[in-house]
Amino acid sequence: MTPWRDPRTGLTVHRPLQRRTRLKLRSAKQAARERIYGIRRKEYLSQPENQTCAFPLGCTETATTIQHLRGRRGWRLLHEPWWAPSCWSHNAWAEDHTGEALAIGWLHKIEGPA
Length: 114
Known about the structure:
Layout: E1 2-5, E2 12-15, H1 28-46, E3 65-68, E4 83-86, H2 88-96, H3 98-104
Antiparallel strand pairs: 1-2, 3-4
């Protein structure tokens, strides 16, 4: 580190070394998981029983995404027993109304029994 004097403030500034490469957005392991997920997601949504939204209070929209009932971090991303076909609006609704989604069964607690 080479200190330099900031002309605006007059303070001595210690600048860290400049990176030569950008930091990766995700690890190689997570990138591999996401590639597998993309393939399995298309297969899952193409099955006849997963064509419509499975929202517990009823919905007739076409399923366009997957609702991860117990989260999608790490290994949970590929755990199909906790997947449910969902329309975009009900998937977003679960994010905004987490307490209500837990109460009606559209989400489950991440830890503990389902």
